[in-house]
Predict the structure.
Amino acid sequence: MSGIGRYFCPVGMFRLKNKQFEHHADTGGTTGRYQSAYKTGGKEKEIGILAITFTGTPIADNEPAVLALEELTGYDIKLEFLLNSAYEDQLNTRMAAGNLPALVVITGKTASVINYCRAGAFWDITDEYKKYPNLAKANEIVMNNISIDGRIYGIYRARPLGRNGISYRKDWLENLGLEEPKTMDDLYNVLKAFTYNDPDGNNVNDTYGMTWCKYYGPLDQISVALGAPNKWKVEDDGTFVPDFDTPEYMEAMKYMRKLYEEGLINRDYAALETSDWTKDFQNGKSGVHIDVSDQAWRFQKKFIEMGMDDDIVWVMGMPEGPFGKRILPTSGHTGFVAISKAGAPTEEDMRDALNFLDLCNTKEAQNILNFGVEGIHYDLTEEGYVKRRQFDQDPMEGFNQFMTNVVDGLLLMEEMTPVQKRREEVILENIPYCVANPAEPLTSNTYANKGAQLDQMITDARNQFIAGQLDEAGFKAVVQEWYAQGGKQICEEYAEAYRAAHGN
C-alpha cells in the first residue's frame, strides 16, 4: 500500500479504549504519523480488504481512523488499494491469480466478475447475510440488483437512487445574465455561452462548456435525458432492445456530436483518465460537470480553500428533454463488497468477514468510516453538527470505499452549506423521474463471456460518431455486428430471464 495520511495535530496523546496512539511530529512541522502501542498478540482476528484509491495516496493502515475501527470491531485490518483508473483491469488479474484478500470491492457486475462468482471464487452469501442483525436490514430490491443468477455474492455499497446531477459555475451564469437551464436546448446554449462569451470576464478565450473523460456516465445521463432507455428497452412482446439501437439514442449522439464539433466539450475526452476529469472545472477552464450531485460541494470546497467566494458552484438535476424530465438513476448501489474464497477459505472465515461487515454497519463504525475520529478528523459544534478539519491531503482517502451503509439514519449530521442543501433537494426531486434499467437484476451467459468486448465495440463506435469519424450508417453497421457477435443471444437471454422473473 502506498501513501501515508497527512494532517496537522498538536503533539500529544489520545486513547481509544485499549489502544494508545502517540503523535510524532515530522520535520516539516505540519504533518505527522501515529503509531500504535497496542499489540494484537493474536487477540484480534485479521481481515484483509482490497479497495479503491482515486488519488494514489490512500489512508494508511496506522492512521487513527483505521485504528479506531480496529478497536471498535476487534479486527486487525489490512488495507490494500488499487488506483480507480486501473481498478477493473488489475482486479481481473488478481482474480485470475487467486490473489485476493477476504473482502474485495467489486465496482460492478462485469463479465469477469460474473464468471468468477459462478466459478466459486467468491462466497455465495444468499443464505447467510440475514443472520446478521445489521446486514439483515439491507434493501431487498438493491440486493436483487446486485444478484447474479438470483444469488447474492456481496453486500452492496449503498448510494442514493437520485444521486446524479449537474454541477455548474453559478458565477459564470450570473456574469452572462443567463438562468439555470430548464431544457436540454437551454443546456446547449449555456455550454456555448461558457465557451464563447468570456464567462470569467478576463478578455481571454480560455474557457469551454463541459469536461468529459473516458468514463461514459455523463454521456449516458445525456442519452436518458433525451429519451433513450436506461441500457435496455423492453418491448410489449417482451423482447429486449439495447439502448443504442433506438432512435432516441441516435438523436442523443447527434446532440453530443454537435457539442464536440462546436468545441463545447474537450476534444480529448475519450483518452482522458477519470483521475484528471475534474481538473479543468477546478482550474476555471470549464463550467459544467455532469456526474453525481455531491461533486458540486467538492468543487465549491476547493474554491473556498483557494480563497475564492463560497457561492461559485451550484447543482441541479438534468434538464427536461423532448419526452419530459428523465433522470438516469444509480442502482441504489455502486457495486458491492464480496468475500473472496482465496482470502477467506473456510466457512468460519466467511462468517468472520460477514461479522466484520455487520459491525461496520453499527452507528459507531459508520461514523468512523465517514468522518474519522472526533478531535482529529472532525469536531462537534455546540449544536451537535460535524465540522470536518481541513488537511492539505485527505488522510482518509479511500477509507469509505469499502463501507456499505446498508442501515440508514445512523450518521452524524454536518451543518450544510447552501449548495449541500440544494444537493439533498436535487436527490429527492430526481426520484420520480428516474428511469429504471429492466436488466439490472438479470444475467446473461453470453454477456458474461463476451460482454466486455461487445461493450467496448459500442463505446468505440459512439466515440467515433461523436468525433465525426463514423456516420449514422456506419454506427448502425457496428450495431448489426454487435448482434452478430453475440448481442442477439444477449437480448434473448435477458428476455428469457425477464419472463422467468415475472412468471411469464
